[in-house]
Protein 1
Amino acid sequence: MINLSIQTVLTPEWIKWGKEQSEKFDNLEGFVAGEGGMNPKILLLGEAPGAKEIELGHPFQGPSGKELDRWLDSLGLTREDVYIFGVVSARPFRVGKSGLKSDRRPNNKEVKAYAPMFDYELVQFKDKLLVTMGNASLQRLLGKDAKVGELHGQLLNESVQHFNEATGKFEWTKNKYDIFPLYHPSYSKRFKAMKPVVDEDSRKLRELLKK
């Protein structure tokens, strides 16, 4: 069943453009549009889609999607309460010796290629809390020196990077955004010792959303 409450702010022209970017790179594939509620409580900023997301055409699917849904439920939210998009909207992959593809972090050229789309989605929502999940989205906003290990669980109010297509460089916005950096929801699954830290950050976000 199609959930009509889950939509994308991307126009058909933007979606066509996004698919064209993917085709320019040998190690990118597919395209997944950002999506969620049109009046979200928070914007969830991720890295890039993986194999399952490309297969199904939606962000956070499969095991990572189930983990996200459990995490949202712990915050008293559903996917209708958030809008999800990533730094890159295609799947970055590498091919191993076996010939199989595996996910990887997007490189700088790929981040810049999708920067206009990321900026477009960001400005469609005014005065929304930006919740970054991991370093990729945090550094897309605040630069390469920003580290989730240092900034997680803190409410920041900062200018963010906006891509200038004319110069091919990032510039800082005049207006500031509220940003709440988090480790990725699956982080504590891979690193059990970090679970208390991840849980405490979620508790802080839950309290913040009550205000």
Note: The longest strand covers residues 177-182.
Protein 2
Amino acid sequence: MRSLVPVAFVIAALAAVPLFVQSNVVLNFLVVTLMIALAGQGWNILGGYGGQYSFGHAIFFGTGAYVTAILQVKYGVNAWPAFGCGIVAGAAVGTVVGWLAFRAGLRGSYFALVTLAFAEVFRIVASVAPITGAASVPLSISTCASRRCSSKAEPCSIG
């Protein structure tokens, strides 16, 4: 119990930061820092304790991000329930990928290659699926400059 006191103090201090800091730059920096720390903990658990090296973290993180964004943007779901659904979707994909890889008894570099293959398959599916925009999202003006768009109002699209 004694070792949890510093952890609880740090968590309480971080939770109080938005009450005192109004700068979006600082808050964005802290959010990104915490996301990177979370990814590092995932690598620590799987690689350090489990002895497995996985490239599948991109699948789980990406699935959660896509589910959250799609629920918010396309269906108007509140951020917190969408966030919870994103976590559940990422965990479900992780369970399926892990079950398939460990059921086959893969270890070491074979496990790493299978998770890399799953990550690539999910990336390709996400880039062509109609629900994610299927590469038809208008690009910004800075990207259009290379394609010689004539007007700021004229969007350029991929494809």
Note: The chain has six helices and no strands.
Protein 3
Amino acid sequence: MSTNKASQPSIVSAKYISITAKANYRIKSNDYKCDIKIRIERDNLIWFSIIYGWGIELVRGRFTPAGIELINHVDKSYQVYDYVSLQAHWHIPCSHSLIQAALLGELHGLEKESTISHLGNQIILQQHQNFWECLATLHKHTKQLASLSVLDSSLQHKWHVSYEYKKGCQQDLLFCNLKAYFKDFKLFLQYKDISFSRHPLSFPFNIPRQYDKR
């Protein structure tokens, strides 16, 4: 076991990424299903749209380095959050760069100051930050990220992402599966498709005038 750095090649080098996903989530004892569209401009913007049933948009949002904005069509409101407040509320690390890294299968600097061990064909990186334990596994030969987990040891809040790769697929990244567990909320998200582009994507975000700002 050591604290040496483990380098990881960039899996997704394109500036623009488009993702479609399906999600199952539970709020207290109620279960829901939805589709999610995600568009990313690397290091600048993560746009998403949550769609229910036959194309009914429930929420449209965007993550920027400064914070999160939501257009909530359910209660007709426009909501703004900063990462510090969200991190305190959910008791889990939260930042634009971490969310981008989780979506694209990257380490988010976890290779720095981590305890590194080897188990079979995997490299295991472990890091403690306050009450949080971060754990990443990499494929030994390719250095591709196999999984990424964050656990809050005080409340047992946790999210875990696993990644799949396929040779011949564009830039090798095929799918990711995300599971998040909180006290009254659980989320299961799975990619359906991912594509890459050098050309700008559309990130529409028009706030209806009649929506309340919160």
Note: Helices lie at 83-90, 96-104.
